[in-house]
Design brief:
This protein is mostly beta strands and 123 residues long. The chain has no helices and eleven strands. Strands 2, 4, 5, 6, 9, 10 and 11 form a seven-stranded mixed beta sheet that branches. It is globular, with a radius of gyration of 13 Å. The N and C termini lie far apart (40 Å).
Length: 123
Amino acid sequence: QVEFVESGGGLIQPGGSLRLSCSASENILRTYATGWYRKAPGKERELVAYITTSGSVDYADSVKGRFVISRGEIRNKLYLHMNNLKPEDTGVYYCVADAVRPIVSGEYDYEFWGQGTRVTVSS
């Protein structure tokens, strides 16, 4: 069974930067559709960013220009570089992956889903 472990979250002040990492127990993250979701208290899960098997990327409007999603070329990892963080970015961040289903907003039934890493942005 493939498992995912997210890391890199923490407490940071507004304007700061963090890099989240998602490590897979098997080397699939460069051949599966992958993405990052986040869940804020009292809100629905939100698709933050995704990257396709061909390398195409897209982002939620709220993070465009600030976040960058990428895959490791050697290691079985998915990254999310987060810059100019805002309090609104606070939440638990999850990596997802699927061999068939594309990663799209509003869909949650993916083949693999990590357990999350918490990001808190506070002054």
